[in-house]
Write a structure and sequence with these properties.
The complex is a heteropentamer of chains A (about 100), B (about 170), C (about 500), D (about 650) and E (about 500). Chain B is mainly α and about 170 residues long. Chain B has helices at about 5-25, 30-50, 50-75, 90-110, 125-135, 135-145, 150-170. In chain B, α2 packs antiparallel against α3 (about 50-75). In chain E, strands 1-2 form a two-stranded antiparallel sheet. Chain E is globular. The chains are: A mainly alpha (about 100), B mainly alpha (about 170), C mainly alpha (about 500), D mainly alpha (about 650), E mainly alpha (about 500).
């Protein structure tokens, strides 16, 4: 049974993704960390699919589609922001705030 | 005898280590490349989990297409060298470690989770299905049957993403 | 009309509204590809969109009229009154957004007709979310909606604020999607399925044996995922910034449609899949409390009207979470009534705000509205009605909605929650009333202060419709109640019977 | 008793009310009218007096044992509380009716002359008529609440008339003080009414007195409380310790007002009330002792103050307080007739004294007015030798002085003597009354002394008014001296009302009042003094009076007085007396100032503004707003923060779900 | 026939009239509004004769509104609400006439709001459906909020929002309580209805929840009354409001609180309301109100604030009377509610009139003006005397009844409360002295003009009311008695009905 190690590894990967989002400032890298989180979830899906049925694998397919769509939109948003700020560091994203 | 568990842990550790490197490398390009390593390792894990088709897609779509897109944007924006503010200082590190550790702690029971026995699993395991329909077919067939609706929605989603990307990227508004 | 999803003809009928709208989106795409130069093209696209939304509403109405329902328990989409009513909310929000966008896009020189295409995709995503009877569909619907709204947020990309808002929304949205997805995966693992009905059966069976870590963690993460979209505290922090930066009609659309869709999905998921579980009531209880308190208290210190409205939308998410926490059919009905009222008043408020401000309206403070009533009595009246409705004042639809939520909470025995709801509503008077006070009770700073306040004909039409609707539903909510009641009853798990359900 | 002229009783107050309405209208519409106002003002009073006489004579001829009650309308009917607006005609109310309308008429006439030059002439008569109306309601009311209408109504008129010259802040303040002090008394009256109602089920005099002996245990706590609260009302209205301080200040009003309200009628209302409720007081021996004791103490205390006052009206005011003390000593002793008798004679001679002093002040004022000097027209140090200029006034006032001093055969002699005898007699049963008697005797001495002093300083010795003014000093017009003469006559003959059996008199008043006083008298120990001891007491009293008068005449040297402006400040004990034992100052320091300080500094500023409004209300608002402001530390626009908060939320949710 | 439409007409007519007032040109607004309010008054007057004092609800109209929820349009009056309705219709024309020259801008809006306010206030008094009651309770809030906020004094914004939020806190918790009652009744009977009678008969067996529900009602009503320490909105609102606003605020709005206690809080939760603890709390708070209100009024520099604090004191008497639950005290409380409307209303009119001339509400700005404006001074004196309950005026009858009745239930408290009459005399007479008496020092006051005919027209009916109720209150007491009796018998078993010695 590979389920338990798969779930464990995927939880670690997910946590690493979250930690990356927390740790980084570069929008692109943060986005990559989010992709890491999605992949961790994919691992869970696939591991579960092995036991439960093919539905999990199908879900992974859709996640990939979603990831692709998000990548397209996300990167163009990053481009749009870069045009304004010449930077993709979130530190510089401070036009919008309370006060 | 082939021991999937050993291999599984091997690739698993690679995935985790490279993921760690991915989030800690200063240079975005290094991060991206380490992420690619992670993705490859995960693809290997997929193979070990009887999802060969998904593994292939993982390599093609993720490691291939998506990551290339990332690298492309990084290069385009000339962000190859680490910026001064790419990673946070000790405070950020502390927060990340603390919260990450807490999350791991909370998710720990998942590592030992077993499937509830009460669940009546759908007939036939994945392996059996693959025997029956082939590796691709076992995933592809349901797409046009049980998962037709999500499949169509995904197509609209991609269409919307295209439109969105075009709108955002086009020169004139 | 019983529809069997296995039969393709029936399947198409089940998806009729979505198909109609998808079809329209393709038409629009073609039209946009052909005509995208002048403001006239923009206007034409807008009207086409309006027609598209209306015709979709009619299609929805047709299904409602024929009492369409899905045969069998296993289906990717549901066909019930809840879905139709929710669809009308999204379509209504979309249509109102179209009406107020005409003037805005032209004024801000956002001459890209793709705006409307994305709006349609957004509405479509919402409809999919409300229709989804499978986590997979709901997830995809959510992503479809999100992608469209991400882009709409950054649509005014010449303004740095708009782009920044889009980036924040996108990054945090994707991040939250990860949690949602993880939650789905865990629920899938715990129950072996992503179908809501089947999950419900499994959960019912599980409960007898033992609670599963996977299921509970999955549930929590699901709530996190939806909690982000509805801007529940502490997942709300994007909302003020993003609402602030987005073009104002988009903000209105986001505050109403996106929130309503996420709530619709949340209601369906929690009630149909986890109806027999009690854990989430407690989780949502806390979420509701902190959201109500947070949203209202944070809104108090805002000077910018737009940010104030953003926090106010957080607070309203809290009120709706009260209904979620209460659970059951009256709560679902209450949600629908509230969502309708909330959509009307929020769109109205943002529409009037956009008449006053320029370039995203970030800088319109409450004091800037001083003396508006003397120059623009009708606009002021409209905004006053919207504010009172947001406050939940009797005679407006906002009151009816709040009233229904209170009934739901109280009949579920959530007396404390109800008390917190009303007390935080009192706090909200502290920021809604200053708007009215500024308009009516403060003098105009100078003669020219409100010279450039202008709302075009269609914007005015939208505001008028909103105000009439608010007042009508406030005084005569009978039809609304009937509709909500039948719709509310339709998302219940078949296994459970509702203990106390008011008429 | 329908069908007899007694039915006309309503006419008396109605006439006074009519006068008020007409004069009030004139005051607002044509403030300068004089003649019409005089005709109305005095006319209604004379008419009311005529009514009173007619009613009295008819009543006398019928002489019913029970009071005659006229119910006009149902006033406050709630459940078992049925208060009718009803008048009660009986022997006691008729005596009061006659005094009020009779003396009132004379004072109204006097006022025509006294107030002639005043710009508020019409207003004055309106108030005066209104006062008479309320006074009549007070004495005629057939129940406690109706009496209370008059009770507070006269207080109101007193307030209005004291502050009649309101542009002087002191006058307005004096009026207010009078009203508030009276209100303290009224508080007692009200509480007494509540107790009476809940113990006897009614507030009508007739019913209450009928039920009292059965409903309440004599000497019990309930009846004692009721009577003590009633007496608190009396101390306010009748200026007894501790609420007497308003009366001397009330002299700020026009002098005829002092005569009518603050000497002859209103201030005696308390005596009337005790007499009316004689049964209740008789049932409560403790209360009776309190009444008598307070009366005796007030009599003595006020008399000491009167010794050193320079203001002619103030001397009279303290004298009034002192004499009212006598009356309370009488009614407290159970000698109701003596009390009422003294009330009547006091009405005559004190009205005479006040009007006489009014005449003097009038003359002084006119004299100063001619020379445009702003000297105090009421200070005796500015007078002296006035007998030369106004002989009539001097002579008449001498009669009154001797009467009040208690020299036979003037009115005051009989009444005062009766009181002292009664007190002494009661002393045979309860020794404390001997103390009261002693107080009374000393008071008599002091009274004779200070009254003689007043006369001496005012009318005799050298004149200190001033050279320029002297030619302008002369007697007042006949409209003023006329009433004085009538009052002088009454003072001379008033004693005839109730010549005791000791002098082979008929004790007419005593027998007349018997139907009213009998129930109470039955409960009081009846002590008969021997004829010899009665004579002895009379001898002591007369001797005291003579000693007082002669002592003053011999001791005081009017020739050594200097005008007020040059007068040195007194020293020692005289100074304490001059400053009225500093009672006003003590009250001020003990009650008024602390209360105002408490209200302003603590209740309003601390509690209301700071604690409730500041801390609680605005504090809550500010607190909420501050929380909102604090949010800006989180809502910094930094996605990193948002993510961190988000993750914390996720962890909490997970923990909640799994835990 | 009249009985069928009168209350509905009273509710709808002001709304129609208000709309018309908004539409006519601004300078005509006040005439139209005055006419409309007179019509309203005329409609209400026959209630006086047609009302049959039998203790029950009359002129009842019952129509479904949101039938599915058991929400009905149910209205009716009994001896308790009759006079409050009449007081409302009586004060409205006077308020409009009294605002004639005070309101100089946005006339139309002002008069329209006054008319809408009329509907809200009458609605509160006649509602026999708790949903309707709640709606009306809130509806009157908005016009008042605008009246204070738009036409008020310098600090009007603060006062307006304070007024609003204070009221809102209470009313929203009351809403929750109403809903709990509603659901409780529904659980017990299976019938969903907000009807007063339905909820009343099913408010039993609530257990400890009753305490919370009573608490919610208590808060809502106590704020409105206002009971110490929830009173601080009142001085601000009174001071800042324009004359008509103050008049209505004091005259009618405060009565909604005491009315609420009588109509809802007491009958619904008798076991809680009459428990020792609650009795103690209420009596103590009323006493504090009476004495504290009076003492604070004593030191107010602002005449309107003084009247405001005096209202706190007066309403303290009402609360004491209600809780004493004897026939005398309850009727007295009802009478004070009317009296206070008349007397305090008149006081506010008078202050408003002098304010129009001198633009100052400070007591020290005046002094000695009785000489310049004798008519004003005279009327002010009479009204003040009524306010300090001089016998012969209306104030006395009410306070006397309350105190007399309360003495049976709470003897010590009543004795303490009676000291309130001393304090009342102290603060009002002091103010009176400083305004109309004393030397006239301020030259500006020399030129004051006395009351005009219009102002006299405003005050004359109030003066007539003061004397009428003072001298012949029987018609009022008669009409209240059966309802008061019914209320008391409902709350206390007949064997121990107080008021029957």
């Amino acid at each position: 049974m590979l389920l338990s190690p798969a779930l464990a590894i995927s939880a670690v990967l997910f946590t690493l993704g979250v930690a990356g989002v927390l740790f980084r400032r570069n929008a692109i890298v943060i986005f990559m960390c989010v992709e890491l989180m999605l992949n961790a979830v994919n691992l869970t899906f696939v591991a579960l699919a092995q036991v439960i049925g093919v539905g999990g694998q199908v879900f992974v397919l859709f996640v990939m589609a979603v990831a692709a769509a998000e990548a397209a939109v996300g990167l163009s948003i990053i481009l749009a922001v870069y045009r304004h700020k010449q930077s993709v560091s979130l530190q510089n994203m401070n036009l919008l705030k309370d006060g | 005898m082939f021991d999937p568990k050993g291999f599984f842990w091997f690739f698993g550790v690679i995935a985790m280590v490279s993921a760690l490197l991915c989030i800690t490398r200063r240079s975005p390009i290094a991060s991206a490349l380490w992420l690619v390593v992670t993705l490859f390792s995960i693809a290997a894990l997929f193979v070990l989990l009887d999802a060969q088709f998904i593994a292939v897609l993982q390599v093609l779509v993720y490691a291939g297409a998506i990551m290339v897109l990332f690298l492309f944007v990084i290069m385009l924006l000339n962000l190859g060298r680490p910026g001064p503010s790419d990673i946070k200082g000790p405070l950020g590190l502390g927060v990340a470690v603390l919260l990450g550790a807490a999350m791991l702690f909370l998710l720990k029971p998942l590592g030992s989770a077993t499937l509830p026995t009460a669940i009546q699993l759908p007939a036939g395991s994945v392996a059996a299905l693959q025997q029956q329909r082939g590796i691709v077919g076992s995933v592809a067939n349901p797409l046009f049957d049980a998962y037709l609706i999500p499949f169509e929605i995904a197509s609209v989603l991609l269409l919307a993403a295209i439109v969105g990307a075009v709108v955002l990227a086009k020169r004139k508004l | 009309m019983r529809l069997d999803p296995a039969v393709s003809h029936d399947l198409l009928l089940t998806l009729l509204p979505e198909l109609v709208l998808t079809g329209w989106s393709l038409v629009l795409l073609l039209f946009v590809a052909w005509r995208h130069q002048t403001t006239r093209d923009l206007r034409l696209t807008g009207w086409l969109t309006f027609v598209a939304l209306v015709s979709t509403a009619i299609a929805t109405w047709w299904l409602w009229w024929n009492r369409a329902s899905v045969q069998g328990t296993v289906s990717m989409v549901a066909a019930d009154d809840f879905r139709w009513v929710a669809d009308w909310i999204f379509l209504g929000a979309g249509a109102l957004t179209v009406l107020v966008s005409f003037g805005y896009l032209e004024r801000e020189r956002l001459l890209a007709p793709e705006y409307y295409v994305l709006l349609v995709f957004g509405v479509l995503g919402m409809m999919v979310m409300a229709a989804g009877a499978d986590l997979m569909v709901i997830f995809l619907g959510l992503e479809l909606m999100s992608v469209a709204v991400y882009v709409l947020t950054g649509f005014d990309r010449r303004r740095a604020r708009s782009a920044e808002a889009a980036l924040k929304y996108f990054l945090l949205g994707a991040f939250a999607s990860g949690f949602l997805l993880y939650g789905i995966a865990l629920v899938y693992g715990a129950t072996g399925t992503t179908n809501l009905g089947l999950i419900g059966t499994q959960v019912g069976a599980l409960e007898a044996s033992r609670s599963s870590v996977m299921l509970l963690a999955g549930l929590a993460l699901l709530i996190v995922g939806f909690g982000f979209k509805i801007a529940a505290v502490p997942f709300h922090m994007w909302a003020p910034d993003v609402y602030d930066g987005a073009p104002t009609p988009v903000t209105g659309f986001m505050a109403t449609g996106v929130k309503a869709a996420a709530f619709a999905a949340l209601f369906r998921v929690l009630n149909q899949a986890f109806g027999t579980l009690t854990t989430w009531h407690d989780i949502v209880w806390w979420l509701a409390v902190v959201t109500m308190i947070g949203g209202n208290v944070f809104a108090l210190s805002q000077r910018s009207v737009k940010r104030m409205l953003a926090y106010s939308s957080v607070a309203h998410a809290g009120y709706l979470l009260v209904a979620v926490s209460a659970g059951g059919s009256p709560a679902t009905s209450a949600f629908l009534v509230y969502a309708i009222a909330y959509t009307l008043m929020t769109v109205g408020a943002f529409a009037i705000l956009q008449a006053k401000g320029r370039a995203g309206e970030s800088d319109v403070t409450i004091d800037d509205l001083s003396g508006l009533a003397t120059r623009h009595p009708w606009l002021s009246f409209g905004l006053a009605v919207c504010m009172l409705s947001l406050l939940g004042f009797p005679g407006t639809a906002g009151f009816i909605g709040k009233w229904y939520i209170l009934i739901a909470a109280l009949s579920a025995g959530q007396n404390v929650l109800a008390a917190i709801l009303v007390l935080t509503s009192v706090v909200s008077a502290g920021y809604y009333l200053p708007v009215i006070m500024a308009m009516y009770m403060k003098p105009e700073p100078d003669e020219t202060a409100h010279l450039d306040v202008r709302l075009d004909r269609w914007g005015r039409t939208a505001v008028a419709a909103v105000v009439l609707g608010l007042l009508l539903f406030g005084v005569w909510p009978n039809r609304l109640f009937d509709l909500a009641r039948s719709a509310g009853g339709s998302v219940q798990p078949s296994s459970t019977s509702t203990a106390v359900s008011p008429p | 008793m329908t069908g007899t002229p007694v039915d006309l009783i309503w006419l008396a107050p109605a006439l006074a009310l009519l006068g008020f309405v007409l004069n009030g209208t004139l005051a607002l519409t044509r403030p300068n009218t004089k003649t019409l106002v005089s005709v109305i003002g005095a006319g209604v009073l004379l008419a009311a007096f005529a009514v009173a006489v007619v009613v009295f004579s008819n009543f006398r001829s019928l002489h019913p044992e029970d009071p005659v009650i006229y119910r006009y309308w149902s006033w406050i009917p709630v459940g078992t509380l049925q208060v009718d607006f009803a008048f009660q005609v009986d022997q006691l109310s008729l005596v009061m009716l006659l005094i009020v309308t009779g003396v009132g008429s004379l004072i109204h006439l006097f006022s025509i002359g006294y107030m002639k030059e005043d710009p508020g002439y019409a207003r004055y008569f309106a108030y005066l008529n209104l006062f008479v109306f309320f006074m009549l309601v007070l004495v005629l009311g057939a129940s406690f609440p109706v009496m209370f209408v008059g009770w507070e109504g006269v207080g109101l008129c007193s307030y209005l008339l004291i502050g009649f010259w309101f542009t002087d802040a002191a006058n307005a303040t004096a009026g207010r003080k009078a009203f508030i002090m009276n209100r303290i008394g009224d508080f007692g009256f009200m509480v007494a009414m509540f107790m009476i109602f809940w113990s006897m089920g009614s507030l009508d005099f007739a019913t209450v007195f009928e039920h009292a002996p059965t409903a309440l245990a004599p000497g019990g706590a309930a009846i004692t409380a009721i009577t003590l609260f009633l007496f608190l009302g009396c101390t306010g209205k009748s200026a007894q310790i501790p609420l007497y301080t308003w009366l001397p200040d009330a002299m700020a009003g026009p002098t005829p007002v002092s005569a009518l309200i603050h000497a002859a009628t209103m201030v005696t209302a308390g005596v009337y009330l005790v007499a009316r409720c004689n049964l209740l007081f008789a049932m409560a021996p403790v209360s009776s002792a309190v009444v008598a004791g307070v009366g005796a103490l007030t009599a003595l205390f006020a008399a000491t103050i009167a010794l050193k006052q320079w203001d002619i009206k103030r001397v009279l005011a303290y004298s009034t307080v002192s004499q009212l003390g006598y009356m309370f000593l009488a009614v407290g002793t159970g000698a109701m007739t003596a009390g009422i008798f003294h009330l009547a004679t006091h009405a005559f001679f004190k009205a005479l004294l006040f009007l006489g002093s009014g005449s003097v002040i009038f003359a002084m004022h006119r004299a100063y007015h001619h020379t445009h000097v702003h000297e105090d027209a009421q200070d005796m140090r500015n007078m002296g030798g006035l007998a030369r200029y106004m002989p009539w006034t001097a002579a008449l006032m001498w009669i009154a002085t001797l009467a009040i001093a208690g020299l036979p055969p003037l009115a005051g002699f009989f009444s005062k003597d009766e009181i002292l005898t009664a007190a002494h007699a009661r002393g045979h049963v309860q020794a404390i009354w001997l103390v009261f008697w002693g107080f009374g005797l000393v008071t008599a001495l002091l009274t004779a002394f200070y009254m003689t002093r007043l006369m001496l300083y005012t009318f005799h010795g050298p004149n200190r008014t001033g050279e320029a003014e002297r030619p302008h000093l002369h007697e007042a017009p006949w409209i003023m001296t006329g009433p004085l003469a009538v009052l002088g006559l009454l003072t001379l003959l008033g004693g005839l009302l109730n010549v005791p059996e000791l002098y082979r008199g008929s004790a007419w008043l005593h027998h007349w009042l018997e139907p009213v006083t009998a129930p109470g008298a039955a409960l009081i120990p009846d002590v008969h003094l021997s004829r010899s001891s009665e004579w002895l007491l009379v001898g002591i009293a007369v001797l005291t009076a003579v000693v007082g008068v002669v002592g003053a005449w011999r001791l005081l040297k009017p020739a050594e007085l200097v005008p007020a402006k040059q007068a040195p400040e007194e020293r020692g004990f005289a100074r304490i007396l001059r400053h009225k034992w500093y009672v006003d100052e003590i009250y001020d320091a003990l009650f008024v100032r602390p209360l105002m300080w408490l209200s302003r500094e603590i209740l309003w500023k601390r509690v209301d503004q700071q604690a409730i409004d500041g801390a609680a209300v605005n504090g809550a608002a500010r607190g909420a707003r501050a929380l909102g402001w604090a949010n800006r530390w989180l809502q910094t626009g930094q996605v990193g923060t948002y993510v961190a908060v988000f993750v914390v939320g996720v962890l909490l949710l997970l923990w909640r779900a799994l835990g | 026939m009249y009985a069928r439409w009168v209350i509905t007409a009273l509710l709808i007519w002001p709304l129609i009239a208000g709309a018309v007032v908004l539409l006519v040109p601004g300078r005509l607004a006040k005439y139209v509004a005055l006419a409309a309010s007179l019509v309203e008054f005329a409609i209400s007057v026959p209630l006086w004769w047609t009302f049959v004092p039998d203790g029950g609800m009359q002129f009842v109209v019952d129509r479904p509104w949101v039938a599915a929820w058991g929400i009905h349009y149910t209205v009716g009056v009994d001896g308790i609400s009759l006079f409050l309705v009449l007081l409302t219709t009586f004060l409205m024309p006077l308020s409009i006439l009294g605002s004639w020259s005070y309101i100089t801008r946005r006339d139309g809006g002002f008069y329209a709001l006054l008319l809408v306010l009329t509907t809200g206030m009458i609605g509160v008094f006649v509602s026999l459906d708790l949903f309707l009651f709640y709606v009306m309770w809130e509806v009157m809030l908005i016009p008042m909020y605008f009246i204070i906020g738009v036409w008020g004094g310098d600090n009007r914004l603060y006062a307006a929002i304070k007024f609003f939020i204070y009221t809102f806190v209470g009313s929203l918790l009351m809403l929750v309580a109403i809903l709990v009652l509603y659901l409780h009744a529904a659980r017990a009977t299976g019938a969903y209805s907000f009807g007063y009678a339905h909820l009343l008969s099913n408010a039993k067996d609530l257990g400890p929840v009753a305490w919370w529900l009573f608490g919610a009602f208590f808060l809502a009503f106590a704020i409105k009354v206002p009971l110490f320490p929830l009173h601080t909105w009142l001085p601000d609102a009174h001071v800042e409001a324009p004359t008509a606003g103050s008049v209505i605020l004091a005259g009618i709005l405060l009565k909604m609180g005491t009315y609420g206690f009588l109509r809802f809080a007491l009958p619904f939760f008798p076991s809680v309301a009459l428990s020792r603890t609650v009795q103690l709390v209420i009596v103590i708070l009323s006493l504090i109100g009476i004495i504290y209100g009076g003492l604070v009024a004593l030191v107010q520099p602002d005449f309107k604030k003084l009247i405001a604090y005096s209202s706190v004191a007066h309403l303290g008497f009402v609360m004491l009377g209600i809780w004493a639950l004897t026939l005398q005290s309850v009727q007295g409380a009802l009478l004070i509610m009317i009296n206070h409307g008349i007397s305090t209303g008149a006081l506010f009119f008078l202050v408003g009139m002098i304010y129009e001339r001198r633009h100052s509400r400070l007591i020290e700005a005046y002094g000695g003006i009785a000489r310049v404006v004798p008519l004003f001074a005279g009327i002010l004196t009479i009204v003040s005397l009524s306010s300090i309950a001089l016998p012969g005026t209306n104030g006395f009858v009410g306070e006397f009844l309350v105190l007399l009745g309360s003495f049976r239930t709470y003897p010590i408290a009543t004795v303490l409360a009676t000291t309130g009459v001393i304090v009342a005399a102290a603060y009002l007479l002091t103010a009176l002295q400083r305004v109309i008496y004393n030397p006239l020092t301020n030259a500006e006051n020399e030129k004051l003009s006395d009351l005009t005919l219009r102002e006299l027209l405003v005050l004359a009916p109030l003066l007539a009311g003061i004397l009428w109720i003072g001298i012949y209150p029987k018609p009022f007491l008669q009409r209240m008695e059966p309802s008061a009796k019914a209320l008391i018998e409902q709350l206390r078993p007949p064997s121990s009905v107080a008021g029957q010695p």
